[in-house]
Specification:
heterodimer, A: about 240 residues, about 0% strand, B: about 220 residues, 10 helices
Chain lengths: ~240, ~220
Amino acid sequence: MNTQNRQDGNDGTLDEGLDELGRKYRELGADTPPDLLDQAILNSAHRAVEKKSGWTQFGWLHGLTTAAIIVLAFTIVLQQREPIPPEEGIILESRPPEIRSQSMPSARKQEVTPAASKDLEEAADSNLVIQAYSEPRKEGQPLENMADASSETREREVSLEEEQATGTRAKTLDASEADFAAASMRPESDDEDVLQDTRAAEQQLAEILRLKNAGDETWHEALESFRQQFPEYPLPAELED
Amino acid sequence: MVPEAMAASGTIALRKPGDCRSRITLRVSGTTSSLGASPRIGYIARMRDFTDEQLMRRYARGDAQAFDLLYERHRGPLYRYFLRQVSDTATANDLYQGTWEKIIKARRRYRSNAPFTAWMYRIAHNHLADHYRRLRPVEELQESSIADTKTGPAQATLDDEQRQLLHAGIISLPAEQRNTLLLKLETGLKMEDIARVTGVSRETVKSRLRYAVKKLRQDLPE
């Protein structure tokens, strides 16, 4: 205690007094707590650290699980924000009416590619439905009939004779396709104009190539029409003279 | 306390010096190897070289044997700290046990940058202050309370009268002076640590000690 007091920087009087008092104090007796009290405290201390639930034993697992969930959630949010690239081939614009009128009668008899046919049918269906719903519903005519009209067109294969017989509907189909194409080609900005034109041109070129590969001589006329419509558009090697 | 012969079950029996009757049995948890309890005992023996701060950190991590050693080191001074400040043994026992319960609960909050003794007596001091607040403002000190104090066998050079005078003198000190004096005499803490424990400045601690020493010198015959 003497060393500690000197280290504390106490004055000499206080140091001496404390030293003297300390000697007398120690002679008071080394009183200690009762044994039962000791045992109770020790038991309590042991119980405090031995009592662990299943989860507490793996406390580190809490942090790891939480971190994993946060990382997963963050990854999902990031992926949601990434722009989805436009899929190629989903071109909803229809062919120009000139090509259709020249080539479609025979083309219709031929098997249309699934993608192109699907696009055309979707365009036709949607416009049919739109037209159907835009017309005032006749009294007593249920709404389901209007929807049925669009579903019927999916299964039809229209020939020239059927066109005549169902002239109204075929014209409506062509007109609807043209309307849809026109509506879809109606750009909202200059950049969209360019994109739309490019898509239309590519689709026409694809159709022309198909006609040529199929041996249909009408591909010449289709090509001529294409050149008139897109004079500056580069042609693929197969179509160049 | 010294450990007796180690039992095969892994129990350490501590006997108080000079006391043939009382024993404190510290449970040694864990499985017993083919060598009996010796590996575990060796571990505990090595822990005796640890500082209080190391033992407390080990206990906070779940080592109950570390607490046993810590308790062994501080049970006497802490008990006497309460015993010399209150009027009866029962109250001292309650305060003593309550302080250890708080230490056990606060084990995870212990920061080893602070000395363990100062941290422990800070808890004890606050516990005692709460006790005083619950008491009546003025509590008469009864003569009989001095006789109730449990006194262990001591190799005293003072006669009984002087011991009683010293004890009475300490009890009669104002609470702040008594508290500060006992912290100094029992724990040997530095002035700065006592200031941290009691929540006052170092100069206030010195002042209280000065007054306490002066009064006791007057009460005790030379």
